[in-house]
Amino acid sequence: MKRLIFLLLLISVLFLLNIFVGSASISPQEVVDILTGRATDSASAFIIFQHRMPQAVTALFVGAALSVSGLMLQTTLHNPLAGPSVLGISGGSSLGVAILVLGGIAHSANPGDGLFVMYIAAFVGAMAVTALLLVISSMVRSNLILLIVGLLLGYLISAIITTLYALASMQDMQNYVIWGMGDFSSVSVSQLQNLVIPIVILLVMSLLMIKPLNVLQLGDMQAQNLGVNINRTRNLTLFIVGCFTAVTTAYCGPVSFIGLAVPHITRLFTNTSDYRRLLPMTMLTGSSVALLCNLLCVLPNDTLLPLNAVTPLIGVPVIVYVVLKKR
Predict the structure, then answer these.
(1) Beta carbons of 170 and 212 less than 8 angstroms apart
(2) Tens digit of pLDDT for each residue in 177-221?
(3) DSSP state string for 194-252
(4) For residue range 218-254, what is the model confidence (pLDDT) as tens digits?
(5) Whole-angstrom Cα distance, residue 71 to residue 79?
(6) Which of 128, 125, 124, 138 shows the shortest CA–CA distance to 234?
(7) For position 106, what pLDDT does the model report?
(8) Of 69, 87, 28, residue with least CA distance to 52
(9) At 115, phi and psi to the nearest 5?
(10) Counts of helices then strands in the chain (DSSP H, E)
């Protein structure tokens, strides 16, 4: 209970800091006045309510979604380094966007339509890879083979993207590189419900899988003897993770390391493997880590760092620790 209260307080503090801190210089008193309705500066109010607030909400939900994805995959595949990027699901989103951006299709459209088409392309790309993994999962029983297939898919997708990159114009290359850096600020207020509602539904579906995931930690043979349908659990996990990745990558780009590192941070913090506590705490830890990363993107001189330049600062030390611990 103390850890839960600590995480809730930490999220509240980080959320408020994300509202108070940004690239535009707005004094803390002015932020308070805007939040309480006493301010008259429409420009500052626009920045707070149309930029910083949705950005913080996006980080809150995307962090939870990516972290739960990593936790479910690591348990289902019995691999502490499993994640959406390892299985090629994130690569599917990147390929969808690469076809549009590096092919010049998004650049030729008007800004509003081009952005919407990019969201659709990222979603379709991730779901296409997820569907392929589901087909392969129904054909093989080995988690190791599924993991190897996912890695091979990732390499194949990377090769296709590299080819498109070599043939693209300089402007299209730049647009794709910027998208690939990850960003919580690309979701507008009007788009926020399109991101939040699917994530909430998927988080509820994840909570309903607590019992089979708990049993799966004993190993596939033990879980099967206890009545868990291994294939159905694995396929449902792949579907949920695929949807999580499709939604988050479509709106925020490929965000690295959060899904991989946060489950291990949560295990160290809670000192438990019971999914009844671990999964909800992973959601909260993921939200707090994402909010912290978003905050660290703002430098003192009002310079903004790309999100994927900050997430490895937290993720890499955790992964190195896990690798050394597991030997």
Answers:
(1) no
(2) 888 888 888 888 888 998 999 999 999 999 999 988 888 888 778
(3) HHHHHHHHHHHHHHTTHHHHHHHTT-HHHHHHTT--HHHHHHHHHHHHHHHHHHHHHHH
(4) 877 887 887 788 888 888 888 898 889 888 988 888 8
(5) 10
(6) 138
(7) 56
(8) 28
(9) -65, -40
(10) 16, 0
Tokens of 93: 């989103």
Name the nearest CA neighbour of 92 among 41, 147, 161, 165. Answer: 161
The total of other beta-carbon atoms located within 10 Å of residue 326's CB is 8
pTM of the model: 0.87
Q: Could you tell me the two tokens for 48?
A: 């707070």
Q: How far apart are CA 57 and CA 62, in angstroms?
A: 9
SS3 category, 40: coil
State which H helix or E strand residue 300 sits in.
none
Compute the chain's Rg from CA coordinates: 20
Residue 326 is predicted with a pLDDT of 63
What DSSP string runs through 91-154?
Answer: HHHHHHHHHHHTTTHHHHS-HHHHHHHHHHHHHHHHHHHHHHHHHHHHH---HHHHHHHHHHHH
Angle, helix 275-296 to helix 311-326, in steps of 10 degrees: 140
Decide if 241 contacts 84 (C-beta within 8 A). yes
Q: How far apart are CA 304 and CA 90, in angstroms?
A: 24
CA 119 to chain centre: 15
* Closest of 255, 301, 241 to residue 63, by C-alpha: 255
Q: What is the dihedral of CA 251, 253, 256, 258, to 10 degrees?
A: -10
Here the tokens at position 207 are: 């909570």
Q: What size, in residues, is the chain?
A: 327
Mean pLDDT for the stretch of residues 44-58: 89
In terms of Cα–Cα distance, which of 237, 208, 213, 234 is closest to 223?
A: 213
